[in-house]
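About this split. The held-out portion is used to measure sequence recovery: a designer receives only the structure tokens and must propose an amino acid at every position. Recovery is the fraction of positions where the proposal matches the reference. Here is one held-out target exactly as it appears in the evaluation file.
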């Protein structure tokens, strides 16, 4: 239950991304700078945190042990997550990006078979492929249905081009983010805390953001002061606070696929925070009719996930029993 509350709090700060990205797009800012500046601004803040906690050496040693894994999974978890989202925001409406992003609550659950868990048996430790938690998947689909209801009226007016550029990049991001996050948890094996892991992943992707920035400078010129300011706010709220909170929550339940699915499902509440933010900051209309029904469905789904997470936490885990092997000699 505590991890779900942390996830919801993270979603509130994550919502800043969608609101300000839309704001920057409306003011003429380029998606290239929106994506690259966020992560470049994150580096000094995370470095100060890690230095203050006196564990920078540990991070660098861990990265040196598995450099290709750090670069590869960080690229998937951060670059293939955020660049497509900002690109989609530039060519599709903000509500479409925020709604499509909710596919990640289902994507994370479907990725379970790509991971293994260690099981202690009489013959030693063996690796078992993790299974899809179908109960958690069913609840996540209920939440996704609520998201569809919220966006239904707006979707009636969307063009095919907006649908293409506003959906496909975000679908890629929806799978990349939980995959990169989970794989990096696997690589770290509990040896790094959340701040260290976020700093390491951000540091590993800096070359990619620098290359993108050079491309942006050549293509669209330098970013405006307004875009720099808003990107800094996104970096602090979404990149530092939200990412850290979300990674803390997923770290705590990384060994249990059902609970992990529940925590990842909290990202659905971003839609609710985006609605509130756009009403207050961008003068968007208040939700009515079927949109209110969608909000109720999302809330119900989150409550079900909360009860499910609480129920599996009190059930003893049944481990498979493997008989001892007989050796003749």
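Reference sequence for scoring:
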């Amino acid at each position: 239950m505590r991890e779900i509350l942390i996830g919801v709090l993270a979603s509130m700060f994550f919502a800043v991304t969608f609101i300000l990205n839309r704001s920057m797009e409306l003011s003429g800012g380029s998606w290239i700078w929106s994506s690259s500046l966020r992560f470049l601004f994150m580096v000094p803040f995370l470095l100060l945190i890690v230095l203050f906690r006196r564990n920078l050496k540990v991070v660098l040693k861990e990265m040196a042990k598995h450099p290709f894994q750090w670069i590869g999974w960080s690229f998937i978890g951060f670059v293939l997550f955020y660049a497509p989202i900002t690109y989609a925001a530039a060519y599709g409406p903000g509500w479409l990006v925020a709604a499509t992003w909710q596919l990640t609550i289902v994507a994370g659950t479907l990725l379970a078979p790509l991971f293994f868990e260690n099981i202690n048996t009489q013959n030693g430790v063996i690796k078992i492929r993790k299974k899809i938690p179908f109960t958690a998947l069913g609840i996540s689909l209920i939440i996704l249905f609520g998201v569809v209801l919220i966006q239904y009226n707006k979707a009636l007016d969307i063009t095919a081009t907006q649908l293409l550029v506003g959906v496909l990049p975000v679908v890629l991001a929806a799978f990349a983010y939980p995959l990169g996050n989970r794989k990096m948890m696997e690589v770290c094996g509990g040896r790094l805390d959340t701040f260290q892991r976020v700093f390491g992943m951000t540091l590993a992707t800096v070359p990619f953001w620098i290359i993108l920035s050079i491309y942006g400078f050549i293509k669209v010129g330098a970013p405006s002061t307004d875009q720099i300011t808003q990107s800094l706010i996104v970096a602090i709220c979404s990149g530092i606070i939200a990412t850290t909170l979300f990674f803390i929550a997923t770290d705590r339940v990384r060994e249990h696929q059902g609970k992990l699915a529940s925590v990842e499902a909290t990202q659905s509440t971003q839609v609710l925070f985006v609605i509130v933010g756009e009403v207050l900051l961008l003068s968007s209309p208040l939700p009515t009719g079927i949109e209110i029904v969608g909000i109720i469905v999302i809330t119900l789904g989150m409550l079900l996930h909360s009860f499910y997470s609480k129920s599996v936490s009190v059930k003893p885990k049944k481990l498979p029993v493997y008989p001892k092997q007989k050796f003749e000699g």
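Annotator remark: The first helix runs from residue 2 to 26.
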